[in-house]
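Listing 4. Sequential folding, example run.
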Amino acid sequence: MPDLNLRVTQRETPGYLSVESDRMILDSQAADAAQSAANLAGGAATSPTMVYIANEIHPVGVEDDASDSKHKRLSRYSVVAGIDPDWLMPGAGPPFGQYEYLGTPPEKPLSTIDLASGGPGEIVINDWLAHDLLVSTGDEIELTWHRVGSHGELPEESARFIVRGILKLAGTQAADRGVVPEVPGITNVKSFADWDAPFPMKKVTDRDELYWDQYRATPKAFVSLQTAQRLWQNRYGGVTSFRIATAGKPFAKFATEYSDRLRVHLEPSANGLRFRPVKSQGLLAALGTTDFGGLFIGFSLFLILSAAILIGLLFRLGIDRRASSVGLLLATGMGPRRIRRLLLAEGAVVVLLGVLLGLFAAVGYARIMVHGLKTWWVGAIGTRFLDVYLEPASLALGATAAALVALLALVFSLRGLVRIPPRRLLSGIATPTETASDRSRRGRKSAFRAAFCGVLALLLTVAVVLRAVPSVEAFSGFSWPTIVFFVVGLLTLAAGLWGLAAWIDSDRTAAVRGRGALGMARLGVRNAARHRARSLLSTALIATATFLIVAIAAGHRNPAVESPDRNSGNGGFTLVAESSVPVLPDLNSAAGRGQLGLDDAAATTVLERVRQVVPFRVNPGENASCLNIYRTSQPAILGATREMIERGGFKFADTRGDNPWKLLDARNNDGSVPVLGDLNTLQYSLHLGIGGKLEIRGENNQPVTLKVAGMFDSSVFQGVLVMSEEAFRRLFPSRVGYQYFLIDVDLANGAKSPGRAAALAAERDVSELL
């Protein structure tokens, strides 16, 4: 048990064992294990305790005109113990009861203090403290103590209590020192002057020194365990020791048996010691978060379409040049189907050769790209552990798909060729004979299709703008808005092409008017109608490439380089800072900066530009951003302070409410913890949307379910999840201080509009200082 910072202390004279921790407080798992071990010991009596040091105890409503604090009616640095109030009642048996009262004992167990009402609690004190304060049963006293603040500060709090009884101290149960666990530097020193206290101490009275000399840390007052936990419980636990009665059994034997039972009930996993299936976790992580095959196909869809168009154009151009040969074959009696098969067979030979060459080129291209990702562009993925692996099935599938696309392009390009009259083909004309009415009818159909696609694209765009399309994953890491974006792009492309087709099929009998550059431009536009199919396919090729370039450029967003805006991805902050060690002092106060050595003249001049620093607690984990190509099971967690939640800011996606940060305060009926995350992190890495759940492990290995309450839109929080500081401290109690900071810097430094150079200088100065 020493490995778990636990010990079982034997208190043979009172007749009980005490489970204590080197960390001065037992976590809930250790306390539960101690109770379970006691239950197996024949139902032995137990008494969990919670002790705390009161900075000062003094009577309420009494004028004290003593000028020297050593003669005032007060007691400093007294231990107050919280135990089960039933043990304080007359008639309670040993080893935890049998308290002796001077005067009238309490008629009922001490009640739990009600902090909401502000009324006094109930307390019993020993006769030494009653003599110091000159109080009796029914009087009211006040306790003050230090509370550990979120920035390491020690604000003082207080509460009032009504004295319900006075205990006899000398030679009684009230003199039991075992209630207080051993604390090196406190309980084992001879006087208050020798205390190794983590807080500044005031002068104590002579009576306090005398009490310490005789009784050391023996409690001077007792409250109910519930009251002590309500006032002094922290995120580490609510019990300082757990006492177990021997129930009349031989002490040494009982101590050995109980220690063995306790060791069995202590879960090593709750203390960070657990077996992990390393290989299976590695294989699971290697599956990745995104199907890159589907992702690349999705983003390359327009490139594949462009390649098919180019293949069709080149093949049709070659056939058009052989129009007379095709006409000769038709004139000699060869059937259209046979001619089509002949031409396809010729094209298939070229396709087969192209596919074979393409396989070798694809492997070489893949190796070059992977080498580039490991060297030239390593910052894009953040790892060098990339290699090219060739699988016969993948090569066969790629070759087959490429061949089918190419053959379909050939079939499409041959459509209608063999229906042209042989005499027209023999004269070298590869276009069918059309009348004005045929072109007009085809133009109307094209116009209708263009209008239909245009209206449908407009409706889908409006649906996305009005948030009628949910921002959740559809498949392979693609969200529905992303899919709608590409669908709208395809529909717009189709509408434009059909619109161009309708224009080409319009009346072309009017003369081209104009001269100079304008006239030449009009003539060039009119020339597009000379070869309708070629013009449409060429336009489609250029339009597809244009859409792809614009789409990629539009999707590239970096909130770190955007101008500070409260409703943007940077939330109005200028800098993001991370520290390798936790920072406790408040960077917004002069005192906090002084603790970090940032109070000299140079630092003060620079920090005058810092308007606000918002800290976050950090529980390290796996990077869940797109830089991590492996599957994430335990993402990094940030704890947002109350200040940040009330401030709000940042741009959200598909998240309603004036201040979505307040969603972190929600209490879910299923016990899940609400979190916020970046849209890209949630959809592409964790595959979650609003309402989605993710199970992680808390500090003591307990399973914790996180529920997505909202999504940031391209924010500085990519790769992490954000929860409230309250929930963070409950799940990760040993994570102290702050390691992630959002900093708002006054770039203008008093000017109405800062220049770019001045803004960069301000950022550089603050960055270098911190």
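-- end of first protein; second protein begins --
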Amino acid sequence: MKKFLALTLSLIILISCMHITALTVFADEVISITIDGVEQQYDVMPIIENSRTLVPMRGIFEALGATVSWDEASRTVSGVKGDTKVVLKIDDVNASVNDISFPLDVPATILNGRTLVPVRFISEAMGCNVNWEAATRTVIIDSKPKMAKLVSEVHRPVPTEFTTSSSMDDMMYFNPPSIEEQEKVYKEVRKLGDVVCSTEEFMSKLTPFDSKTDNYANYGSYEVVDVKDMEFTQALRITCTKVANPSANFIVRTGATTERVPGEGLPKDDVMLLAFRFRIISGGAPDGTGQIQFQIENPVGYRKAVFTLCTATPEWNIMYIPFTGIENATSMGIRAGFYEQVVEIGGVEIINFGPGFDTKKLPATSSEFPELKKGAAWREDAIRRIEEIRKGDFSVIVKDKDGNIIPDAEVEFDMFEHEFQFGTCVNAFVTTEDYAKHLSINYNASTTEHELKWGPYSDNPSRAQEEVKLTKEAGIKYLRAHSMIFDTNAKVNMPAVLREGKAKDYTREQVLDIFKKHIENVFINDMPDAFTDCDVANEIIRCRYLRSVFSKDGKEIPFGLYEKSPSPDCTFEDNTMFVDYYNIVREATKGKVDLWYNEAGDVYTDRYFEYLDTFEALGVDYDGLGIQSHYDGALKMPTEQIALYNKLSKYGKKLKVTEYSCSTADEAVQANFTRDTMIACFAQPEMNGFLMWGFWDGYNYEAYGPMYYADWTLKPSGKVYQDLVYNKWWTKDAKATMDKDGKATIRGFYGDYDVTITANGQTKTVMAAFHKGYDNILEITLD
């Protein structure tokens, strides 16, 4: 499509250059020039030569948003805007646009030491409309096209049936079963599994604090106390005397495990249930509640099967937490450093139901989150912003073949694609029929999950190429290349010549050359024009293998970014590698692909903003910030997410949720949290996408995907997603009639539309892109 646009632009410029137009004035008359209605002021007045207006080169290029440069040796001026490059040479009657040569009626010239260029040629080359108003002797430049170009005509089989209306006041909210119902279910299913950890075992194997290996004692203490009038006789009492930030600074651990036989491990597919009771004795939040976080994790990789934040009240509360999907998740602990508080935990029991057990049969306790409830104030404000920033006025003008307005023409607008990106990561299962079908139903965007990373692609590029091919065949409009630099020393992410410490055998320049060849293979040789986005750097705060190898002192880089010196601007020299990485990808993609920095949970830390400041100081050439958004344990509430987005807005970059996940067996929380995370994202002006990191339980990053069960039945959170994207944020059957000014206008969500016109016994349907930032006035001619 971009090649088509280039050819169209070429034709416009060629015609403009070959014919004398109405832009003819006399040399002794004052000429005005306006751009988008703003009159331009130049230190050198425009002149007329051969019926063409010439203006100062820097003034016109910069006013149109282009970067201008001058080469004295060749007497050549260049202007670059996006993927358009215009080159003119002084006194040369030919100019070039993206290396295509065009004849000029008048060449660029130097007058009184200033370089002047033809205003019409420059403006049209930059995609502007140029008109001449004779009465006021004004050159009128409109830099905003009336319509965006339609880049895809694919009509995916999107959902069309819903249980709620399209009104944002008619949201889907989910409530969990009552505690009484869950206790009844627990008693029924308990006999179907094996108890692998009892409360007695949990208490008897509590791990003493060790000042040599941890600092837990700095934040509080614990003891085992007797309990009356409960089914259990002892409880773990944790006293927090100092708030732990981060919460990992204060964990009470136990040597009890989730294994059937200690030391034999826990299979990934075993379905488990954690049950416990807890309460607050004193302290806590101003409202009298407290918080604990129960964690069950793999002790080596620290991947967590349970990481649930629980709110305690003075009464004993019970929690039922199903979990599965993490191999050898055998290490247990409780975080209690959220407040200065005293809390108690008892009745701990873990049951193993084996592989294949239906988790929907297990009880699951929902935590209380006020921000996720109906009527939350933040949501009302977000809905208002969505109405303002995600919708626009779309107009159609209908004319006959002679150019006359056809009055009373009826127009219908039906959306068939979003401009906003809604997507998921894609893996090898895209080769299967069901996966590809549901991918096409739900998403217009995708990202490669693994196979396009430097290591896997270098090992076997065909896997990534097949995934990209099948993703496109599923009708996906926006494709993200993930990721070019995942700077770890593991076997999977680096190419064989660099992985496992081998990078030390190369110079920095040699490594960059290897990287450049990889990038050229992906974007030039193998899959040109396949991608719209690219994660150049991924998780750079915690992944810094190559930067460690090539750091100026040869030492491992600590978590901090800046050297410990008085100057905050003094950074490690190795961070300049990011300048090289991004420049290499920018050159290979020729400005046609947005380049992103993608980061994980560290986006909520000061370190992340230190990196962003350093990117800015180094002049790293990138377009957007990807916020992974894995909320699989502690949830960040919508107001926390919005605060982060607002803080990031100062950097002037696009934002995108790139890897959303909310792996919890609590389907009410998963659905409510997914709904509100999507709303918070869609309401942020800088956001242009919301992508999940997997969507199906049959094969997913975490145990509980946000869309489908393993049998492809839609989950509650999947229903929420479809209701928002294709019901509440979708414009359909919108009708309008031509008004007295000859326009039929509606207000709709930005996207691609089928526009059907009925007039004088004729019906005609055309496809059009009504996108943000355009006039969105479509002219249609009926024969």
